[in-house]
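Possible regression after last week's pipeline update?

I re-ran a chain I had predicted before the update to compare outputs. Posting the input and the new output here so someone can diff against the archived version. Not blocking, just want to make sure nothing changed silently.
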Amino acid sequence: MISGLYFVANYKNKATVWEAAEWQNGAEWKQWQRFESIPSSMWFVLINLCKEHPLADKFESFFQRFCVIFVCFIGVPIFAVPTGIFGCILQERASKEVAQADASMHEACALYDEEPDSAPQSEERAGAEMQPRGDEASIESARGLQVDDQPQAAKSWAEEPLEQNVELQASVPPTTVVGLMQHVARHQAEAVAVSLLSFGSVFVYFYYTVGAQTRLFFVPVYVGPVCLLCVDSIVAVIFALEWMWRMSSVGLDYPLSMLGLIDLSSWVPGVIHFFMYMFCGEDCLSPWVRAAIVLRVLKPERYIGGFGSMFSIVVEFQSILLATALVAFLTWLAASTVLYYTERHSPDEDINEYYGSIPRTLWAEVINLHGEWPWPDYSPLGKWIGTYIAFFSTGICMVPIVIFAEGFQRRLEEADEDRHGSGDMMSWQLDHLPTESGIRLDVWCLLYNHLLQAPYHFSCGYRIFRAMSVTMTLLVTTSTVVVTYPWFDPQNCREDLTCQAWNNALYGIDVACMSFFVVEFLLRIFALRGLYLISWVGLADFLSLAALGITLTSLRDVSLHPNYNSAMIADDMVIPVRLLRLVAMESYVPSFFVLGNVVWLNRQLLLKSFYALVCVWYIFGVALYVEENGSKDKEISSRYADALTGLPHALVHMCGDYPVQNYSHFSQFSHFWGLVFGQCVVSAVTGIFTAGFVDYLGDEREMERQRAAERRLNLVTNAVVMLQAKFRRRRRLALQNQGASSSACAVPARKSGAFCDCALDIVQQRTFLGKCIMIFCNAVLIINIINTLAGSVPEVEANGQLLLVLDIIECGCCSVFVVEYVLRVLACRTLCEVIAPMRIFDLLCILPTIAHMVLQSEPHRWQKEHAFWENMIECLLVCRVLRVLEFHCIRREVRLVQRTIGACLQGLMLPGMMAVDIWIISAGMFVWVEGYFKGPEEEHMRSLPDALYWCSIYLLGEWANDEFSDGAGSRLCIFYCLVAVALFSIPIGLVIEVTSSLLRDMAEEDKEIHRLKGVPPGRPPSGLRVPRKSRKSQMGPERSILLKKKKTREGPKMGPRWNF
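New output (post-update):
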């Protein structure tokens, strides 16, 4: 369906023409249109569904970009569900194998009368005296990487912070910045000091690579070689003294431990840097000597323990990781070899360059197998192979990363089991509920009635006020997005009356919304005794009202269409500040409040995962800077002119995206490991966010499970009733057949509604005739879909005879659809079933054929003037494929999808609202920063609709453009990679989790049904006829003999089993 929509939107798009390929149309050579037909569009849609958009800058019209946004928000989550379920199943299987291995190890220890090491994890970290044996020793040694074995005098360096963190899990989150700083200073002072020294010296190196004066928060900063040398030497001396003290306290085992090596790497490069600079000067210093300062980011590992958990995961899942890594390696080699032979003679220069030899193809397939497709224009055979890679090979190669990330997440959760013991996480508005009846209580209930329990829950006045507030917020947000479109520019609107009318209408909407918002703002201040004004939601509400008020004055045109060259910055920020009105929805949908609670409850998990992510990011980014600084390729050299400029690009690559690919052979090796480790830590962060939301909403999920158990009980009861009714119906039909055989001349009286009953039997395939009719209708639908695909091919469309055949087939299929629609309408018992969405959709699918015949009868000039209706007809023709969901053979899967959607709607409200807020507000920020700082993406961010289109792609982790303005634009890019993409993935994770739980529920329902019927689980479920031969094979010999005797007594069967 999406391929058909892409075809309708882009088959006349000149920007999507592939200039490298030409085809001969008679005597004329034409360039190949990528979306010339539905089959040719399928490949590019498949790439988009894999979160890759190499042609994003080719789509310019509203319909074209709407298709892309639809894919980003709807198509990608649906496409990710099978992969997510597959990863969950693999992870469960891996956990079972590990549990079985542990049980076998314990049994082996019991046979030799040896007690396995059962010390708690904190004692293992502190260094238990008992030495574990065999594989257990390797696991314990990996776990011991988090904190080294030390005597009692030195345990405070590593053990106390971890114990304090576990102890403080049940505390209430600090409500002020001062409270947060006191909390950190009281419990993690030593860890904070080490982190400041480590990361501070690394940041000094980053600013040194700039080589000129730059700014840090509007403060001029310049770091020269001498300044870097002094900072590096001082920090190295401090860490060297600490290393010597630890070695004297612990002994010779400390330098050989993993933490000892990390501590050694934190000061040795600084000493080398100092002596080389003193004796040789700056000229003999290698860039790698100064770059080695980045290894200092590993120093806080002693207090955080992120990489120790990673090593323990590698040891624990080593068997399955090795097996899946081997399969991924073989898949990589096979895909590279096959694509080399199919693409080495490609007319496209880029593809010919990267697939010209097998070694170069290996680098290209490292990118492709991570879901990145920067080269979309393959040959037809290459597209078939690429389809296989997208469906199967990418998932296979990502299996080790999924297992590692899931295991890392579970290990962190096991190490932080008390994180759910949260304190009072209630909304702060409840603390200010008036205790006495009066106007203040009435106003409070009008605004915050949803926070109360029954019987006060959702009063009529509250419902009306909430509906008005939500409607006004949506209207003012839509007005903000629409009015920034270039068509509403003041210079264009002066002469266009239509533009002026729309502009006046939008101004009226803003006036009405402003009036309502002012009243609501004052009511909230009154209900909460003025505290609403100092809350962050109230502050966002106030700022949005101020921005909305500015746009109602004479500054409206300047504010909504700013000239970023002006000296006044206030009018340039009106658009993003006005969009803060969405944050005021927090009063009804507390998405960010829940996010804050989730972050606080999972702060240790997020700290460890973010620390691992930042360490891998910094090391990978500095390595790319040293390798590519001064590269012959100007594009690569400009991206890595200094470390600060290269960090956003390195983070984009870690997320699996490659806007540029022409790296040197030496840096390609760094990219391989950066991709592997980067994908692992990024997936772990995303998984922790998703798991945090699932756990926080666990109470609601528990209620849903109880309701599911009630539904299963009702299902069993309905199954019993259905079986009884079916048995009585068959017995009644048997008696009627016996009466008909005794009086052959008697004609049964026709009951009222018998024709509707017959239609119901046909639609639900209860009879043999019904099965035949519905199978024929389904086959006609498949033929019609193939006919629509063939009609979109230009060669077929140019052939008049073939086009006539396709029109005849279309008319014949439409006739069958009309008959099927009549049968489905007659089978409806109530009016609600007649006007159900699928019945209305069936009617709409009949109209395109009739409209197409009418359109073809009109003159050619009229058809040109009404091309919009032709596109609408083609869209409806393409959407006929959705009628496949009514096939009787996939009704079980369709019910699963329906149940999944119903179960997800309530749980997706919070993360969905948060994702929409991030999407719209960040789009406004991109418009401002790229326009104000004159960034490279200013052309793509001229209006909010343009920015919304690009941000919908960025939020998937796909960076079609990653060169933003220095400072603000690149920091927004980093925010997207570290936070926004993870938050945007939460709805997808929730859908996968709900789908997995529903699959388990359906399996339990099947077991209950089989148990009720007394049929083993391997037998076919109810409602499916078993072939006669198989039924006989399942009977015993005695049962077969009795059945034969019964048939001889009853005589031959009289007539069919259905009755008209």
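Follow-up from reviewer: compared with the archived run. The chain is about 70% helix and 0% strand. Marking as no regression found.
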